[in-house]
Amino acid sequence: MKRHLSKLARLLPRGAIRSDFLTLKNNSSDAWMASSLPDAVAFPKNTAEVSKIVAFCHRHRIPVTTRGGGRGYVGGCVPVKGGLVLSLVKMNRIREISPQDGVAVVQPGVITSKLASTAKRRRLFYPPDPASLKESTLGGNIATNAGGPRCLKYGVTRNYVLGLEVVLADGTVVRVGGRTHKNRTGFDLVGLFTGSEGMLGVVTEATLRLLKILGSGLLPCALEIADPFTLAAARKAIPNAPRCDSMLLVEFDGQPSSVKSELAIAAKVLRSTSSKIFTAHGDAACEKIWEIRRGFSYALRDTGLVKLNEDVTVPRGRIVDLFHLAAKLQKNYGIPISCFGHAGDGNIHVNLMAPIGTRHDDPRMHRILSELFQGVLKMGGVISGEHGIGLAKKPWWNAASTPALRKLHQRIKKVLDPKDVLNPGKFL
Ligand SMILES: Cc1cc2nc3c(=O)[nH]c(=O)nc-3n(C[C@H](O)[C@H](O)[C@H](O)COP(=O)(O)OP(=O)(O)OC[C@H]3O[C@@H](n4cnc5c(N)ncnc54)[C@H](O)[C@@H]3O)c2cc1C
Q1: Mutational test site, ligand 1, from 28, 53, 66, max ligand atoms within 8 Å of CB
Q2: I want to staple 85 with a disulfide (CB 3.0 to 4.6 A). Which of 38, 184, 251, 317 is the partner?
Q3: Does residue 420 belong to any structural domain of this protein?
Q4: Atom of ligand 1 minimally distant from the CA of 133
Q5: One domain, residues 208 and 267
Q6: pLDDT in tens, 274-316
């Protein structure tokens, strides 16, 4: 082992591998009672170094125990089999905070409270708050799917992880999830790695969801949008559908008095861009407005045209670009396109309204969809935010994934369904 580890040290920058007693001791335990000395501790500074270290250990069967802040309560980062502790404390940069997209991109060694306070300064909110937040790392929080007092209202760490870069046991670097607030491209591998306690891979970067407190200090629970074609169809089918070319539906929840004052502030903000504002309070009145929104799909079906319903999702800051792309496709191909959906998370239903009798494998529709999906992927979006791949998006699965991601899907499928009897013929 010692010989191997000194060979590994020669492959890395000076000081990246240490084996002095104090370093070994400091990396032998967490906040629980167990303790065990590793043979060495690695301090990589980037993903390439992590990949090199893990691939080397894989080749020589050296145990690797990943460590964040070492504040776990269950001995998760204790190297009981010796070998190498992979400490991520030097990968501690917040790479990006994007108010437009409502995301932070971080290295795993960032201390949790540092992200929370940096986000707060930008009027953004990162809710997960384990009581260890001043000492634990975001990588550790992800690997343990940490909770905290605010879980009651906001949920656990998993609810804030949108994308991960992970180094697998053989050193392969794979990216799962992404930057969008919804993503249904393939298996939920973000969910698989979150809470996996360092046993399935090493998290080397995370894209985390930040809640956006709107300029006015408001945090709506729903933000829905609809375009002229959708609203024209709605007026023919739904009583009370609004007589306007576009619609933004904003919902607030909470105590009646606080909702009332938030609504008043929202109305003030929206007045500069909206010609008409309707407000409703209480379940019955709000339900009447939601009935309009829920009726959109049925109203589009009633046009008699064939609705090819796509659920693409883009980073929130690119919603306007998505509407422009849909308008361009509509103009270039002469096919009406209806856009409506969840503006709050960038998930817009882009519906191609094809002539009656159009089949699902129509080559012209395929071309339009290819252009739509390519445009969305270029924006950092995903081809499905809600519905999944199924058969409909199978032709674009390769474009929407990397070889490493596809291989990972296949390996998981092989382990759990070695004879390929479960739902064969789909995207794997
Ligand atoms: C005072 C105190 C209060 C606490 N309060 C809470 C609480 O309110 N809620 C809560 O959920 N927990 C709490 N904890 C437990 C602990 O803080 C959490 O489990 C935290 O997420 C651990 O983070 P860490 O960076 O210290 O991880 P570590 O202890 O270093 O590691 C924990 C696990 O994650 C793995 N790991 C670490 N980083 C990575 C990575 N980048 N990639 C893959 N695997 C990795 C390790 O191998 C290990 O299995 C508390 C602990 C203390 C000491």
Answers
A1: 66
A2: 38
A3: no
A4: 17
A5: no
A6: 778 989 998 899 999 999 998 998 999 999 999 998 999 999 9
